[in-house]
Amino acid sequence: MRKTVNPTTRTPVTQPRNPADVLLGQLMQERRKFVGFSRKGLAAQLGLTKQDIKAYEHGERHFGADTIALLRIVLKVKIGFFIDPLTPLVRKQGVARNG
Fold first, then answer.
1. Where do the DSSP E strands lie in 1-99?
2. For residues 31 and 85, what is the distance between their CA atoms, to the nearest angstrom?
3. CA distance linking residue 19 with residue 54, whole number of Å
4. What pLDDT digit, counting tens, does each position of 38-96 carry?
């Protein structure tokens, strides 16, 4: 579940995790471990915290195109590493937008 804040009431709202973000997080974690980065090491390369990396890996944070582009460079993979596995998911479920 992702936690966000309702902009009107400013109260916490829990949203289901986007399946695409969950899949991207799994791919990110798999590649991070293969390359030999710790969460802290990858965070340093991306200008994030290790808590941010954990949130991405658990699908609790949305992956933007900029994040995927940076990951591709830092983890030394082609963009297809992240995009190709998403194709069947998008075909099956359509594009889900969570904020």
1. 2-5, 12-15
2. 14
3. 16
4. 999 999 999 999 999 999 999 999 999 999 999 999 999 999 999 999 888 877 776 55
